[in-house]
TrEMBL record:
Keywords: Leucine-rich repeat, Repeat. Residues 24-193 form the TIR domain. Pfam families: NB-ARC, TIR, WHD_ROQ1. This is TIR domain-containing protein. GO terms for molecular function: ADP binding. GO terms for biological process: defense response; signal transduction. It comes from the Eukaryota.
Length: 1005
């Protein structure tokens, strides 16, 4: 693997080539004076190093080629070790002195290893430049001095020789012959290089992909000290990946160290932590400095490893101070240093501010099966006769490499009988070796974190995080912190919809920890969840105060029956989970410490008074509500998911208004064959609906107003053949669902707040609706001139289909604009605003009832009839007095204005319209339109009914849903065919009384 580096120009002087971290191409560079008698030693050393597979560079001096020295300088900077052979005539060579200067610069800059050899010369002579060594140095320096240098070469080279001679090396006079010296040097070089791959797994399934991803990240950070974290649960393969990365790249570093099992050593006696520091230093420096304390070790590390380009792997770290005392401050290391940390606790990595965290995910199904097969069969795939059994075991392992390896090896050469028996035992008693390793993570938790872990693995996997947090906080645990710690250590993970999930092996390990606490006496355990044990405790009535949580979820559909008295001794019971369990006796036997009750198929029609729930935080009674027709969960601020509707087969009305946290509607809603109404108004977090909703056969009213994240496709909503009313105001719907308005059943459609539709389209839709015989393009063109991406021609198919629509609601920009639009529409529709010459004898009236109006309508009809009969002109006096049970508003012409009364529970309304007509034409034979204009809300609500005298309940609810207390409202009534409206009166029925009819009669008569 190569690391990026940038080159730099250099002269024959000591210019630096270290603008970036060194890219090592050689192991050893040998610096010597070839005309010296030491040439024979160097030749022998060079030969033995090559035989030992040490990449060594040695070159003849050739000053006639101008670039030769520069090439030597580059070679020195690209070598890990520099061997300097000092001799009596060494200082005569200017070239060698320049090379020596470069070597010392690399030694001081990035920690290049320097090994001096003193060949027939005293080290002190080199150190102090005495005798012939000093004289030769002076001559070489004077020859090299050009006069324009900042420092005389003699001064520089003298300092360089002193530094080099002070480094520990070898004196030839201490050896019997050159061969012995060469053997010692080569041995030392091999130790310093340490070229030995770490042993990794025998079957590296999927290993390369992990290695490529991490090494790619290291390359991206190669211009600085790079810290990489590898995070994952125990047994996920972190150490194996780290070793493979180490083997791939360690030759690129001046020094390297792989420290394993840091957590295990750290947790032992404090004094044994010093060896961790000693091992790190020895791996890099190849000697163990005597250190008496941890603080001393940290100081030695900071000084001894400074400026070196190193590869350090710290395996299984679980505390931040381990990192502080082993790798200290990253600024102290040389450029290009890589530090890799494996851990089960991501918090450690975040605190260190590593450059990149690589999360170890579990293996996929194919890789899991392959790894298991290699260990079990020594083949990449399972043998045919073991295929299904192998797959069932692999599924249980959940992609955890450790479990796949251990279980695969345990089945190697096993008989078929053992294969058939073993899988059934795994979920009850996990295999010992796997559990022993997994338990390491659990043992590293404090008492509170262990309690939270055990509660979650027994009761709350798959439950929403906030829901679980509230319950466990109520149990006296700091679940906000504890759950976060479990997530950081890989023991918990948060999946979609913020639900807590856990690897099945960890879950089973936690349950086994509780089982092992009292293997023969389950009644004394803190948690009861193994079904046979729970049933035995309840039948034998041997529960104890130790039990804090109990879960009984039998797999059979038959209801298990127990005595409530069996819970009497479980006085500390906090968590209770039952599934279709029948209890007889008094519920007062349940613990007063209960915090959570989850009871699917609760057997009673009501909750008895002696069921102690004073401290309960969450109750989830999954009732089988066979006859339930109306379910209203509106304003449930923390409701995130609807209940399962499978226990509510008769449900007709589902109202979930203003549930801002609702994210999911259960797919079982598609099984509700009797569902008539769905109201999801202002469910602002709801972004999608299950496809089953659109397959409902009975749904008549669908309200989605304020669900601004929902995007309904036209082809989806068109599947609801029974739909009559669609209210989808302020949603993410992009266009009018034309397939809906073309439906023969659709009666009411609200078009307000459509995101990408111009408001100017709506008047043209209304005109097309009111005058279906006219050309729609004549209405559309004037209003669509400024529309971006003009799409007015799409209204042509709408024009013919709107004849089926009974109601439509649109939004205006302002009261002024709305008023003008209404007048224009009425004029185009043919409303006559002028005085008519029709005879007074053709003065008639029409009553239109909405909502609850029956008692009122007949009485009002009689009263108006008598008034018209006694009138001698075209004027008529309509009843206008207000009474406790009705409010009257009378207007001139075809409209009536009023303000919606405050604090009035309106039950219905009656419109009375007095008009002039020909003898042949009456209003009941005309197309009737009612326009409700709310000037306060700037809305126009139109209702068109054929030859009818009343609206139905759905129309009443639609009208009322758009009227608020105090709103300024005007109602227009049109009949078409040139009928002239003289007066319009509105009677609001706003109370209930058995004497309403009597009150009305006395008022009108």
């Amino acid at each position: 693997m190569e690391f990026a580096s940038s080159s730099s120009s250099s002269s024959s002087s000591s210019s630096s080539f270290l603008n970036s971290e060194p890219q090592f191409r050689y192991d050893v560079f040998i610096n010597f004076w070839e005309e010296d008698i030491g040439r024979k030693l160097v030749s022998h050393l060079h030969s033995v190093l090559l035989q030992a597979q040490v990449k060594t560079l040695i070159k003849e001096e050739n000053l006639q080629e101008g670039m030769e020295l520069e090439e030597h300088m580059r070679a020195i900077a690209a070598s890990k070790i520099a061997i300097i052979v000092f001799s009596k005539s060494y200082t005569e060579s200017t070239c060698r002195l320049l090379q020596l200067e470069k070597i010392i610069e690399c030694h001081e800059t990035f920690g290049q290893i320097v090994l001096p050899i003193f060949y027939e010369i005293d080290p002190l002579d080199v150190h102090d430049q005495k005798d012939d060594c000093g004289k030769a140095l002076e001559e070489a320096a004077h020859k090299s001095y050009s006069g324009d240098q900042l420092e005389h070469p003699l001064s520089r080279w003298s300092r360089t020789l002193t530094t080099a001679a002070g480094i520990s090396g070898w004196d030839v006079r201490d050896f019997r012959h050159d061969a012995e010296l060469v053997e010692r040097i080569v041995s030392r070089v091999q130790i310093l290089l340490g070229y030995a791959d770490l042993s990794i797994t025998r079957f590296p399934v999927g290993l390369n992909s992990h290695v490529e991803k991490v090494t790619g990240c290291i390359e991206n950070h190669s211009s600085k000290v790079c810290m990489i974290g590898i995070w994952g649960m125990v047994g996920s393969g972190k150490t194996t990946i780290a070793k493979a990365i180490y083997n791939r790249i360690y030759r690129q570093f001046i020094g390297k160290s792989f420290i394993e099992n840091i957590r295990q050593v750290w947790d032992q006696v404090f004094g044994r932590r010093v060896p961790l520091q000693e091992n790190l230093l020895y791996d890099i420096l190849k000697f163990k400095p005597g250190m008496k304390s941890f603080g001393m070790g940290r100081t030695v590390i900071e000084n001894g490893l400074s400026r070196k380009k190193l590869l350090i792997v710290l395996d299984d770290v679980n505390q931040f101070d381990q990192l502080e005392n082993l790798c200290g401050n990253r600024e102290g290391f040389g450029q290009g240093t890589v530090i890799i940390i494996t851990t089960r606790d991501v918090h450690v990595l975040n605190r260190l501010k590593v450059d990149y965290v690589y999360k170890m995910d579990v293996m996929n199904e194919n890789e899991s099966l392959e790894l298991f097969s290699w260990h079990a069969f020594r083949e990449a795939k399972p043998r045919k006769d073991f295929n299904e059994l192998a797959r069932s075991i692999v599924a249980y392992c959940g992609g955890l490499p450790l479990a796949l390896k251990v279980l695969g090896s345990s089945f190697f050469e096993a008989r078929m009988e053992e294969w058939e028996i073993e899988p059934s035992k795994l979920k009850i008693i996990p295999i010992d070796n796997v559990q022993e390793v997994l338990k390491i993570s659990f043992d590293g938790l404090n008492d509170m974190e262990q309690d939270i872990f055990l509660y979650v693995c027994c009761f709350f996997t798959g439950k929403e995080r906030g829901y679980v947090t509230e319950i466990l906080n109520g149990c006296g645990l700091h679940a906000d912190i504890g759950i976060r710690v479990l997530i950081e250590r890989g023991l918990l993970k948060v999946e979609r919809n913020n639900k807590l999930e856990m690897h099945p092996l960890l879950r089973d390990m936690g349950r086994e920890i509780i089982r092992q606490s009292w293997p023969k006496k389950p009644g004394k355990r803190s948690g009861l969840f193994f079904q046979d044990d729970v049933k035995d405790v309840l039948r034998e009535n041997n529960g104890t105060e130790a039990t804090q949580g109990l879960s009984l979820q039998p797999h059979s559909t038959r209801r298990d029956r127990f005595q409530a008295h069996a819970f009497k001794e479980m006085k500390r019971l906090r968590l209770l989970q039952l599934d279709h369990v029948q209890l007889t006796g008094k519920y007062g036997y349940f613990s007063k410490q209960l915090r959570w009750i989850y009871w699917r198929g609760f057997p009673s029609k009501y909750i008895s008074n002696n069921f102690h729930m004073e401290k309960v935080i969450a109750i989830d009674l999954k009732l089988v509500l066979k006859w339930l027709k109306f379910l209203n969960l509106s304003h449930s601020k923390f409701l995130r998911e609807t209940p399962d509707f499978s226990g509510m087969p008769s449900l007709e009305n589902l109202i979930l208004k203003d549930c801002p946290s609702l994210c999911k509607v259960h797919q079982s809603i598609g099984d509700l064959r009797n569902l008539l109404l769905i109201n999801l108004k202002d469910c602002t977090s709801l972004s999608n609906l299950p496809r089953e909703v659109y397959k409902l056969k009975s749904l008549r009213t669908f309200i989605l107003s304020g669900c601004f994240k929902i995007k309904i496709l036209e082809e989806d909503i068109a599947q609801i053949k029974s739909l009559i009313t669609l209210i989808a105001e302020n949603t993410a719907v992009k266009q009018v669902p034309f397939s809906i308005v073309s439906s023969k059943r659709i009666g009411y459609l609200s078009l307000r707040g459509f995101e990408r539709l111009s408001d100017s389209i709506f008047p043209s839709i209304i005109r097309s609706w009111m005058s279906p015989t006219l050309n729609p393009q004549s209405f559309v063109s004037p209003f669509c001139m400024d529309m971006e991406n003009n799409n007015w021609h799409d209204l042509a198919p709408l024009h013919s289909s709107l004849a089926n629509l009974r109601s439509i609601l649109v939004q205006g920009d302002s009261e002024f604009q709305l008023s003008n639009e209404v007048k224009t529409i009425l004029v185009e529709y043919g409303v006559n605003f002028t005085e008519s010459r029709i005879s007074k004898h053709h003065l008639r009236f029409s009553l239109i009832g909405v909502g609850s109006y029956n008692e009122f309508l007949n009485t009002l009809s009689n009263s108006v009839s008598e008034g018209l009969a006694s009138s001698e002109s075209c004027d008529v006096s309509l009843p206008g007095d207000n009474h406790p049970y009705w409010l009257a508003n009378v207007g001139e012409g075809h409209s009536v204005c009023f303000n919606v009364p405050q604090d009035c529970d309106m039950k219905g309304m009656v419109l009375c319209v007095v008009y002039l007509s020909t003898p042949e034409m009456v209003a009941t034979e005309c197309l009737t339109s009612v326009l409700v204009v709310n000037y306060t809300k700037c809305t126009l609500h139109m209702h068109r009914h054929g030859r009818v005298i009343s609206f139905n309940d759905e129309d009443w609810h639609a009208i009322m849903s758009n009227l608020g207390s105090g709103d300024k409202v005007e109602i227009f009534v049109t009949f078409g065919h040139g009928l002239v409206v003289k007066n319009t009166a509105l009677y609001l029925i706003c109370g209930e009384s058995n004497d309403l009819e009597k009150e009305l009669l006395s008022s009108f008569l």
